[in-house]
Design goal:
The structure is a single chain. The chain is built from 14 helices and ten strands. Helix content is 47%, strand content 15%. By secondary structure, it is α/β, with parallel strands linked by helices. The strands form two sheets. It has a six-stranded mixed β-sheet, sandwiched between helices. A four-stranded parallel β-sheet has the order 5-4-3-6, sandwiched between helices. α1 crosses α3, α3 runs parallel beside α5 and α3 packs across α8. β3, α5 and β4 form a beta-alpha-beta unit. The longest helix has 17 residues. It has two domains: 209 residues, 3-Layer(aba) Sandwich (Rossmann fold); 70 residues, Rossmann fold. The relative contact order is 0.16.
Length: 317
């Protein structure tokens, strides 16, 4: 395996200063009702209140901000049907450069509307990974735009790592920190920050059983391809990135999988008890904790609530 140079703690701190004008310093909330159910003390880092409604605003802002003027001229590009699409469009708008967003023609209209609202230029394609990549390659070739991947990118990981930086600055006595895992940008960034600030702090991920390639890869110690993922947690359908995998193998203690009913129950619990809106992907770490309460009993646990972009007309309860 290729040896990679990861962002240092100094790099992550510098990234936070770099993006601070463009993001929210999101609050950390608690719920005594959920603590009583879980048997531990939980500190929820609320990235559902973040710009574009998700942590993705951090990585996109950092990656765009680090481009030099020459590279910025032609703009940026990506393929995404989710939160990264809106995050990159917004970061590009702030920088005054174009953003070319390849989106499958089946992407929800609400997602397309968000990208257009930030000035993103949408190029539609067929809803296959091969078609997304081929269309992106064509767009990059025609425009000269810089490709900013949603998670498998050092500057993106560095940006996502700032979320845990804020959490650990505010709550200094955590025993465990949890995040969901899809492509692995948030989890790998969280793991790096935790490792630097408190090497004894355990990092645990939650993942849907219906999209468990990270769990399989973690267990086998090699990247396992995603095959027909199927979960309500649509933000976690993506396959684990190569860079992200290497960081996760080195610095994550455990990945816990949960079924759909557990995800829905955790989502409902947060929305009912905390009176905040979260998307299904966001509920996965809490679902993992509740499924293994003995593992977390009496601990101080930080959970990153990754985003709040959910279609309220299609709630699963």
């Amino acid at each position: 395996m290729k040896i990679l140079t990861y962002p240092s703690l100094e790099d992550i701190i510098a990234a936070h200063k770099r993006i601070e004008p463009f993001i929210h310093h999101t609050p950390v909330l608690t719920s005594s009702a959920i603590d009583a159910i879980a048997g531990c003390k939980i500190f929820f880092k609320c990235e559902n209140f973040q710009k574009v409604g998700a942590f993705k605003a951090r990585g996109a802002a950092n990656a765009v901000s680090k481009l030099n003027d020459e590279k910025k001229k032609a703009g940026v590009a990506t393929h995404s049907s989710g939160n990264h699409a809106a995050a990159l469009a917004r970061a590009a708008k702030i920088a005054g450069i174009p953003a070319y967003i390849v989106m499958p023609d089946t992407a929800p209209e609400i997602k397309k509307k968000a990208v257009k609202g930030y000035g993103g230029i949408i190029i539609e394609c067929k809803p296959t990974q091969a078609d997304r990549e081929a269309t992106l390659e064509r767009v990059v070739g025609e425009t000269g735009a810089i490709f900013i991947p949603p998670y498998d990118h050092m500057d993106v990981i560095e940006g996502q790592a700032t979320c845990a930086l804020e959490l650990l600055d505010k709550i200094t006595d955590l025993d465990i920190i949890m995040a969901p895992v899809g492509g692995g940008g948030l989890l790998s960034g969280t793991a790096l920050t935790a490792h630097y600030i408190n090497p004894g702090l355990q990092v645990i991920a939650g993942e849907p059983e219906g999209a468990d390639d990270a769990y399989q890869s973690f267990t086998a110690k090699k990247l396992m391809p995603m095959i027909r993922p199927n979960t309500i947690a649509d933000g976690l359908l993506t396959s684990l990135g190569k860079i992200n995998f290497q960081i996760i193998i080195e610095h994550v203690a455990e990945i816990i999988t949960v079924d759909e009913s557990q995800i829905i129950a955790a989502m409902r619990l947060i929305m009912e008890r905390m009176k905040i809106i979260i998307e299904p992907s966001c509920a996965v770490p809490l679902a993992a904790l509740l499924a293994h309460k003995h593992r977390f009993s009496g601990k101080n646990v930080g959970i990153i609530l990754s985003g709040g972009n959910v279609d309220l007309s299609k709630l699963p309860f």
